[in-house]
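Incident review: delayed structure delivery

Summary: a single-chain prediction request sat in the queue longer than the usual turnaround. Root cause was a stuck worker, restarted by the on-call engineer. No data loss occurred. The affected request and its eventual output are reproduced below so the record is complete for anyone auditing the incident later.

Affected input:
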Amino acid sequence: MTMHSTGLTNENGERVVAALDQFQIETPSWGYADTGTRFGKFYQPAAAIDLGDKLADAGEVHRLTGCCPSVAVHVLWDFPAGSDPAEVVRLAGQHGVSIGSVNPNVFQDQQYKFGSFGNPNEDVRIVAMKHCRDSVELARQIGSRHISPWFADGTNYPGQDSIRARKRRFEEGLKQLHECLADDQILLVEYKPFEPAFYQTDIADWGMACLLAKSAGPQARVLVDTGHHYLAQNIEQIVAWLLDEGMLGGFHFNDRRYADDDLTIGSIDPYQVFRIFHEIHGYAFDQGGTYPEIAYMVDQSHNLKPKLEAMVQTVVVAQELYAKAALVNHAALAVHQSLGDIVGAERLLQRAFNTDVTEALVTWRRQRGLPDDPLDALRESGYIEKAANDRTERREQLGIVQSSSYA
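Output delivered after worker restart:
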């Protein structure tokens, strides 16, 4: 595999291929359906109507990219009352994917107006705990290893509630939830600095999430949503600390210009994503080539971009940046660092980031019978047009009303 045209040596090309072999990304069921903002929805004719559509779309993304074998599901949105978990597993397999992380919903119902696990009302906390325990049981039935609750809990005004009391409620709640886990399941604790709580969020940053995860038990880890940070925060430093503490459990990939914008990964700051991946590759190098178990997941809101195209674009960009980060020579980097050669060390990262890995990506795809360019292949396949036609007709039959304009 000679790659002189891209500047890649045989050795580096093989490093890219090896890195891609162990890089899998989970796509979210909700990323295929109509989504919106607090101000409204912008409908798309090809958007998924139900879980069957979502799994079909996820299967198409995996067929084109070869690295998205599982689908994250949302309990409230994907498993209405009376759902048969076995049927969902069968349907996922029919589309060439499996069910991945299970996401409870303890933020949408009116009873969670003042929080779930942090709510001062014990009755509400009991309801939230039952839903999360039911979600763990559902995960067990469908073979899912990751339980990924997102807590919107917090307060909007000073004095609204005791911050310390809310902390203790979360400690107790997460411990109880941890006790329900099967031996192979992982509880992912996510954090967010603000929204919808604007005075204080109960799990506002990685330190709080880490403390709560450690308090919950040995099967709890921290989930890093790349959009859940203030603009000035150094996310790769957070990743490095969590890796060193053995507490990094997973990612929700997206990008942001301001805060939790849920933009497609790498659309605003691809070098930041590269630096995050660099920390992971560097950690594996220090461990003799052994990578930590990390659940890589997408969590984006494709309100304007076509949903399937945006998902494939995200996956391809993530693969490219992960491959570029794999090119950093960590042995040489350690020498530069030991000598205090700041410029030499930084140039190693810059050269890797600026390397064209297209040919190596194409080589990897051809070896696996995948299209050279998954996004081009999607556009040429006619899948989106067919889905739009079929789903528009079904919406009419079901009486589902969407905006008549898709321009």
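Verification: The chain is about 45% helix and 10% strand.
Action items: add queue-age alerting; document worker restart procedure.
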